[in-house]
Amino acid sequence: MSSPPVIDVRSLNLTYGDFHAVKDLSFQVEAGELYALLGTNGAGKTSALEIVEGHRAPTSGTVRVFGKSPRDRRAVRPRMGIMLQDSGFSPDLTVRESVRLIGGLTQRADRVERVLGIVDLTRKAGTKVAQLSGGEKRRLDFATAVYGAPELIFLDEPTTGLDIQSRDHLWDAVDRLREDGSTVVLTTHYLEEAQQRADRVGLMHKGTFHREGTVAELTRTLPAAIQFSLAAPAPAPPLPATREGDGRFRVETFSLQEDLHTLLRWAQDHAVELRGLQAGPTRLDDVFRALGSDQTAPATS
Amino acid sequence: MLSIALSELVQIFRNRLVLVTSLIMPAAVSAFFIYQHEGFAALGSLGYIAAVVMFTVGAFGLYTAAVTTLAARRQNLFLKRLRSTAAGDTGILSGLLLPLTVISLVQVTVILTALAVVTGRPDNVPLLAAAVLSMVIMMLGLGLATAGVTNSPEHAQVTTLPVSLGVIAVASWIGLSGTEELTLLKRLLPGGSVTELVLNAWNGGVPVADSLILLAPTLSWVVVAVALASRIFRWEPRR
Fold this sequence. Notes:
The structure holds 2 protein chains of 2 kinds.
Chain A: E1 7-16, E2 19-29, E3 34-39, H1 45-53, E4 60-65, H2 73-76, E5 80-83, H3 95-105, H4 112-118, H5 134-145, E6 152-156, H6 164-179, E7 183-187, H7 191-197, E8 200-205, E9 208-213, H8 215-220, E10 224-230, E11 242-243, E12 249-253, H9 256-270, E13 274-280, H10 284-296
Parallel strand pairs in A: 3-7, 3-8, 5-6, 6-7
Antiparallel strand pairs in A: 1-2, 1-4, 8-9, 10-12, 10-13, 11-12
Chain B: H1 2-14, H2 16-35, H3 37-43, H4 46-75, H5 78-83, H6 89-119, H7 125-148, H8 153-159, H9 161-177, H10 183-188, H11 192-203, H12 208-212, H13 215-232
Helix pairs in contact in B: 1-6, 2-4, 2-6, 3-4, 4-6, 4-7, 4-8, 4-9, 4-11, 6-7, 7-11, 7-13, 9-11, 11-13
């Protein structure tokens, strides 16, 4: 923990005219971490990411990447790979030419064939970008980001539009890079991905962090849930439960193990069948839904 | 920069539209002027033909094509992509504009050589070369500035008209009427002093020192255009 953070963001603000896109955002990303920046649409995550990548100047605040300003491209970019949200390749160049050009400009050394192999585009090497599918363009984008195995990789919604197989492939490649020590900053709409892979999550809402922490820390603040249904007639369940629209019972609890035990014991004793029994910790999706529901409370500006 | 230039060259040759507007159209106009040189020389002078063909290449082969290219590369986010690498802004722009610049220089050289072969050698070749170079630099500067107000390659068809038609009109006006009247105005208009320089270089009869001073207004236009470009040039499309 003695090494300085790879990314150090302090009191970052970005305004477009009257619109305050990023408000007083501060966070650090340590070497080797996978940090996920999540948020609702328009939460400011792409704006924040673009400032950290060096694509945009902040209105105020400081950003340091490898201890340097991300605007200093010559110093910082050879050490980072960027997968943009929109692909931005020339339609008239082939896949091989695009990787050679963009990869070469990062000043890292690598072989075009190697990175095309990682994203399974070897057979498309001679195809013009204009003829690629959306998913193939995303994979091309990923190939240029990981060209030369950079120390820091930005993945802005990397798996949007990818089929399940390509998605698994991509995450395998990310895992290998992380084994070699790469740091990854991710934005995604697939909360499952963040939940499975992120060391820490920054949950953005209206330009600032609503919550930040590990997935466990974030989900710990919400109760776990037990759901089941009962065949009528049955005695009342032993736990305070709400009845959902389809007649299923839902129990929210901060002591899942204990309450589940109580329920199973009661079912055993009363010879009651718990149909469709489900129990589990809160998922990141639920944290998000909770965010969505406070969003409706205050007047939207 | 060279890798960007090389990929740009590949793109120019794969995209026939740019190839036609930037190569074939100016070449056709120039061929017409050279073919009809006796008539045009009688109206103005051989220097006038040289100035008009040079500005035709500069206005369409270089300026319009440069604005269209920059707008297209910005619109499909290729500029942003290039800026996500370690390449600097100057290197990116130089790389993108280098192929068109070289193609234009080659074109002007070939066309003026053809004119010289048909009609006879110009009076002062180095001075003519200085005129061509200053014209190219000015058109590049104006192209960067115009790209700042151009949203898309289609939009470039409109935004480039004032400058491209303007410089050709100025070259024709001065080529046909000379600079004895309204001298200051004619020299200060973009392309005006270049045209006078070409007339002097091709037709001769003017001391070189008097001609060299004509580079000053052109270079002032470069300064104005680059200053404008640095304020209004955008790397990403408006959202």
